[in-house]
Protein backbone atom coordinates (compact mmCIF):
# COMPACT_ATOMS: atom_id res chain seq x y z
CA UNK A 1 0.00 0.00 0.00
CA UNK A 2 2.90 2.38 0.79
CA UNK A 3 4.46 1.72 -2.62
CA UNK A 4 1.13 2.37 -4.33
CA UNK A 5 0.63 5.56 -2.30
CA UNK A 6 4.05 6.94 -3.20
CA UNK A 7 3.57 6.03 -6.86
CA UNK A 8 0.30 7.94 -7.05
CA UNK A 9 1.77 10.83 -5.06
CA UNK A 10 4.74 11.33 -7.35
CA UNK A 11 2.50 11.23 -10.42
CA UNK A 12 -0.12 13.44 -8.82
CA UNK A 13 2.24 16.36 -8.39
CA UNK A 14 2.83 16.52 -12.12
CA UNK A 15 -0.79 15.96 -13.10
CA UNK A 16 -2.76 17.95 -10.53
CA UNK A 17 -2.38 21.45 -9.17
CA UNK A 18 -4.17 21.59 -5.81
CA UNK A 19 -3.42 19.63 -2.64
CA UNK A 20 -4.82 19.98 0.86
CA UNK A 21 -3.99 18.63 4.29
CA UNK A 22 -6.75 17.35 6.52
CA UNK A 23 -5.40 17.51 10.09
CA UNK A 24 -7.17 15.28 12.60
CA UNK A 25 -6.61 14.01 16.14
CA UNK A 26 -5.60 10.69 14.59
CA UNK A 27 -3.05 12.13 12.17
CA UNK A 28 -2.85 13.93 8.86
CA UNK A 29 -4.46 13.07 5.54
CA UNK A 30 -3.05 14.44 2.28
CA UNK A 31 -5.59 14.88 -0.50
CA UNK A 32 -5.24 15.91 -4.12
CA UNK A 33 -8.14 17.76 -5.72
CA UNK A 34 -8.91 16.82 -9.30
CA UNK A 35 -8.39 19.46 -11.98
CA UNK A 36 -10.97 17.49 -13.98
CA UNK A 37 -13.66 18.80 -11.60
CA UNK A 38 -12.72 22.50 -11.55
CA UNK A 39 -15.95 23.90 -10.08
CA UNK A 40 -15.89 21.53 -7.11
CA UNK A 41 -12.15 22.11 -6.67
CA UNK A 42 -12.50 25.89 -6.72
CA UNK A 43 -15.57 25.91 -4.47
CA UNK A 44 -13.75 23.73 -1.95
CA UNK A 45 -10.64 25.92 -2.01
CA UNK A 46 -12.79 29.02 -1.54
CA UNK A 47 -14.49 27.53 1.52
CA UNK A 48 -11.15 26.42 2.99
CA UNK A 49 -9.75 29.94 2.58
CA UNK A 50 -12.84 31.34 4.26
CA UNK A 51 -12.13 29.12 7.26
CA UNK A 52 -15.25 26.98 6.93
CA UNK A 53 -13.24 23.79 7.43
CA UNK A 54 -11.32 25.00 10.46
CA UNK A 55 -12.13 22.95 13.58
CA UNK A 56 -14.89 21.13 11.72
CA UNK A 57 -15.92 17.61 12.64
CA UNK A 58 -16.85 14.29 11.13
CA UNK A 59 -20.53 14.39 12.02
CA UNK A 60 -21.69 11.22 10.28
CA UNK A 61 -19.50 8.13 10.21
CA UNK A 62 -20.85 4.92 8.72
CA UNK A 63 -18.46 2.00 9.11
CA UNK A 64 -17.28 0.47 5.83
CA UNK A 65 -19.17 3.18 3.94
CA UNK A 66 -18.17 6.85 4.40
CA UNK A 67 -16.90 9.43 6.88
CA UNK A 68 -18.79 12.66 6.33
CA UNK A 69 -17.99 16.22 7.34
CA UNK A 70 -19.41 19.67 6.78
CA UNK A 71 -23.05 20.66 6.98
CA UNK A 72 -25.57 17.85 7.46
CA UNK A 73 -28.42 17.21 5.02
CA UNK A 74 -31.00 17.87 7.74
CA UNK A 75 -29.52 21.28 8.59
CA UNK A 76 -29.36 22.39 4.96
CA UNK A 77 -32.84 21.18 4.03
CA UNK A 78 -34.40 22.64 7.20
CA UNK A 79 -32.87 26.05 6.47
CA UNK A 80 -34.13 25.92 2.89
CA UNK A 81 -37.61 24.94 4.05
CA UNK A 82 -37.72 27.93 6.41
CA UNK A 83 -36.70 30.23 3.54
CA UNK A 84 -38.72 29.00 0.54
CA UNK A 85 -38.21 32.26 -1.37
CA UNK A 86 -34.44 31.88 -1.34
CA UNK A 87 -33.19 29.66 -4.21
CA UNK A 88 -31.46 26.50 -3.02
CA UNK A 89 -27.69 26.70 -3.48
CA UNK A 90 -26.22 23.74 -5.29
CA UNK A 91 -23.09 23.05 -7.32
CA UNK A 92 -23.70 21.55 -10.75
CA UNK A 93 -22.59 17.93 -10.95
CA UNK A 94 -19.18 17.17 -12.45
CA UNK A 95 -19.55 13.41 -12.70
CA UNK A 96 -16.83 11.76 -14.77
CA UNK A 97 -16.66 8.02 -15.33
CA UNK A 98 -12.89 7.89 -14.74
CA UNK A 99 -13.28 9.48 -11.28
CA UNK A 100 -14.86 6.79 -9.18
CA UNK A 101 -15.69 5.83 -5.59
CA UNK A 102 -12.58 3.84 -4.73
CA UNK A 103 -11.45 3.67 -1.12
CA UNK A 104 -9.96 7.05 -0.22
CA UNK A 105 -11.98 9.06 -2.74
CA UNK A 106 -13.27 12.51 -1.75
CA UNK A 107 -16.88 13.13 -2.75
CA UNK A 108 -19.48 15.88 -2.50
CA UNK A 109 -22.72 15.12 -0.67
CA UNK A 110 -26.13 15.99 -2.08
CA UNK A 111 -29.85 15.46 -1.66
CA UNK A 112 -31.98 13.48 -4.11
CA UNK A 113 -32.28 16.26 -6.71
CA UNK A 114 -32.59 14.88 -10.27
CA UNK A 115 -29.68 16.98 -11.55
CA UNK A 116 -27.36 15.25 -9.05
CA UNK A 117 -25.98 18.66 -8.08
CA UNK A 118 -23.93 18.86 -4.89
CA UNK A 119 -24.27 20.64 -1.57
CA UNK A 120 -21.71 23.43 -1.35
CA UNK A 121 -20.14 22.42 1.95
CA UNK A 122 -20.69 18.72 2.59
CA UNK A 123 -17.88 16.27 1.90
CA UNK A 124 -17.23 12.59 2.50
CA UNK A 125 -14.27 10.23 2.44
CA UNK A 126 -15.00 6.83 0.94
CA UNK A 127 -14.22 3.73 2.98
CA UNK A 128 -16.31 1.03 1.31
CA UNK A 129 -15.58 -2.65 0.98
CA UNK A 130 -13.69 -5.05 -1.27
CA UNK A 131 -15.81 -5.95 -4.30
CA UNK A 132 -16.06 -9.16 -6.32
CA UNK A 133 -16.45 -9.54 -10.07
CA UNK A 134 -19.96 -10.88 -9.51
CA UNK A 135 -20.92 -7.80 -7.49
CA UNK A 136 -19.48 -5.46 -10.10
CA UNK A 137 -21.24 -7.40 -12.89
CA UNK A 138 -24.57 -7.02 -11.08
CA UNK A 139 -24.05 -3.28 -10.62
CA UNK A 140 -23.25 -2.83 -14.30
CA UNK A 141 -26.61 -4.38 -15.17
CA UNK A 142 -28.52 -2.50 -12.47
CA UNK A 143 -27.01 0.93 -13.18
CA UNK A 144 -26.41 0.58 -16.89
CA UNK A 145 -22.73 1.43 -16.56
CA UNK A 146 -19.44 -0.23 -17.43
CA UNK A 147 -16.46 -0.49 -15.10
CA UNK A 148 -13.08 -0.36 -16.82
CA UNK A 149 -10.50 -3.08 -16.23
CA UNK A 150 -8.45 -0.72 -14.05
CA UNK A 151 -11.49 0.28 -11.99
CA UNK A 152 -12.34 -3.38 -11.42
CA UNK A 153 -8.78 -4.02 -10.29
CA UNK A 154 -8.96 -1.20 -7.73
CA UNK A 155 -12.39 -2.21 -6.43
CA UNK A 156 -11.23 -5.82 -6.01
CA UNK A 157 -7.91 -4.93 -4.35
CA UNK A 158 -8.65 -1.96 -2.07
CA UNK A 159 -12.44 -1.63 -2.25
CA UNK A 160 -14.84 1.27 -2.42
CA UNK A 161 -18.51 2.04 -3.08
CA UNK A 162 -19.17 1.41 -6.79
CA UNK A 163 -22.93 1.76 -6.34
CA UNK A 164 -22.40 5.51 -5.90
CA UNK A 165 -20.60 5.88 -9.24
CA UNK A 166 -22.30 8.16 -11.79
CA UNK A 167 -24.59 9.52 -9.05
CA UNK A 168 -22.27 11.67 -6.92
CA UNK A 169 -19.37 13.92 -7.87
CA UNK A 170 -15.93 12.63 -6.86
CA UNK A 171 -13.48 15.55 -6.85
CA UNK A 172 -10.37 14.28 -5.08
CA UNK A 173 -8.60 11.38 -3.41
CA UNK A 174 -6.33 10.55 -0.50
CA UNK A 175 -2.71 10.12 -1.53
CA UNK A 176 -1.24 9.81 1.96
CA UNK A 177 -2.82 8.97 5.31
CA UNK A 178 -5.25 6.27 4.26
CA UNK A 179 -4.70 4.51 7.59
CA UNK A 180 -5.81 7.69 9.37
CA UNK A 181 -9.03 7.73 7.35
CA UNK A 182 -9.56 4.06 8.24
CA UNK A 183 -9.16 4.85 11.94
CA UNK A 184 -11.73 7.64 11.71
CA UNK A 185 -14.19 5.37 9.95
CA UNK A 186 -13.83 2.81 12.75
CA UNK A 187 -14.78 5.12 15.66
CA UNK A 188 -17.76 4.32 17.88
CA UNK A 189 -20.98 6.10 16.90
CA UNK A 190 -24.54 6.52 18.19
CA UNK A 191 -27.74 5.38 16.48
CA UNK A 192 -27.59 8.44 14.21
CA UNK A 193 -24.04 7.58 13.05
CA UNK A 194 -22.57 10.52 14.95
CA UNK A 195 -19.22 9.78 16.67
CA UNK A 196 -19.55 9.41 20.43
CA UNK A 197 -16.37 11.46 20.80
CA UNK A 198 -15.87 14.57 18.69
CA UNK A 199 -13.64 13.80 15.71
CA UNK A 200 -12.43 17.24 14.69
CA UNK A 201 -10.46 18.22 11.61
CA UNK A 202 -8.98 21.31 9.98
CA UNK A 203 -8.20 21.64 6.29
CA UNK A 204 -5.36 23.72 4.89
CA UNK A 205 -4.16 24.27 1.34
CA UNK A 206 -0.59 23.10 0.72
CA UNK A 207 2.10 24.99 -1.14
CA UNK A 208 4.49 23.28 -3.56
CA UNK A 209 7.25 22.77 -0.96
CA UNK A 210 4.86 20.97 1.39
CA UNK A 211 3.65 18.75 -1.44
CA UNK A 212 7.15 17.57 -2.32
CA UNK A 213 8.15 16.60 1.22
CA UNK A 214 6.39 13.20 1.37
CA UNK A 215 7.97 12.11 -1.93
CA UNK A 216 11.50 12.52 -0.54
CA UNK A 217 10.82 10.39 2.54
UniProtKB/TrEMBL annotation:
Positions of the PPIase cyclophilin-type domain: 27-198
PANTHER family recorded: PEPTIDYL-PROLYL CIS-TRANS ISOMERASE-RELATED, PEPTIDYLPROLYL ISOMERASE DOMAIN AND WD REPEAT-CONTAINING PROTEIN 1
Record's keyword terms, sorted: Isomerase, Rotamase
Pfam families: Pro_isomerase
Protein name, UniProt field: peptidylprolyl isomerase
UniProt-listed Enzyme Commission number(s): 5.2.1.8
Molecular function, one GO term: peptidyl-prolyl cis-trans isomerase activity
Originating organism: Pedobacter lusitanus
Database matches in InterPro entries: Cyclophilin-like_dom_sf, Cyclophilin-type_PPIase_dom, Cyclophilin_A-like
Amino acid sequence: MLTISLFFLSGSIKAQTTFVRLSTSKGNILIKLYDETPHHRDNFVRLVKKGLFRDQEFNRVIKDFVSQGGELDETILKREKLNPNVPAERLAAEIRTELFHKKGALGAGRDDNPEKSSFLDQIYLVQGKIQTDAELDALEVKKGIKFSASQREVYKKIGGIPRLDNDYTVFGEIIEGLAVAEAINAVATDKNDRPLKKEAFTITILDKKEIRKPVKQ
